[in-house]
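Open question from group meeting: does this chain pack into something compact, or does most of it stay loose? Before anyone orders reagents, we agreed to write out a predicted structure and look at it together. Recording both the input and the output here so the notebook holds the full record.
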Amino acid sequence: MNSGVYQLALRDEFNKLSQELQDYFSLAPGSGTYGIGEGVFDVVGCRQRWLRPLLALTGNEEAFFPEYGEGIPFRIENHAHVDPFGRPALTARREIYFPSGTRLFHDTTSALEVPGKDGGQARARLVDHVGRYRRLVTDLDVSVTAEGRLRGVSRGSRLLLGPLRLPLPDAVDARAYAEQWWDAAEGKHRIQVKVIQPQVGLVLVYAGRFDYRLAPYLPGSVAGTSLPRYAEPDRWEERT
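Structure tokens returned:
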């Protein structure tokens, strides 16, 4: 297995990304390496003070958080693996170092193969399971801009609560708009993400820059294409 989930989703369009982004997003299961990014968020968190107490109620989910800060250091690890249901996946584990304490925010993006139309080339559908218990799931549409940036938009969120699968109506669903690019002048990766809910506006934002490198797994620490134990969620979810 030598393709990452973003390669499976973008197919030929993947080659339109800048070379630095191709290197970043080509991490594939079984490669024997994982990605480490370290940098600073210019802004991160919830800007709306009145909304922060509500986000504090979901802090244990490790998906949303009530803090807000500027100039906040962070670390991200990217692990390419096969999820427990046999799907190629990429788990991103983020540590955000607020003065009041460290917040963990993580998700797993899995690739589901979709047959090509009229016998054309198949293209994977990306599904993102968010948080410690993977109770929030969204579809992720990705594309490449004319400048060679990666753009992603989440849509069609669902809550998975016990046996229930609850699609969120458009009126209450929050969408994430993400863009990542290579800043040649700074020699760093740049990222900007905004989560917007139609009724309340901007729920969460993070934007900043970081350095990125690949590191080998220690011998015996990862079995084949699995995920290191410390990066695993508390619960896996097969439903999409």
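Observations to bring back to the group:
The longest helix spans residues 19-25.
The chain has three helices and eleven strands.
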